Amino acid sequence: MLVRTLDEVTDTDADIKTPNWRSKRVILAKEGIGFSVHETTLYAGTVNDFWYANHIEAVFVTSGEGEVENKATGEVFPLKPGTIYVLNDHDKHQVRPKTEIKCVCVFNPPVTGREVHDENGVYPLITE
Question: Which domain holds residue 61?
Answer without folding.
Answer: 6-108
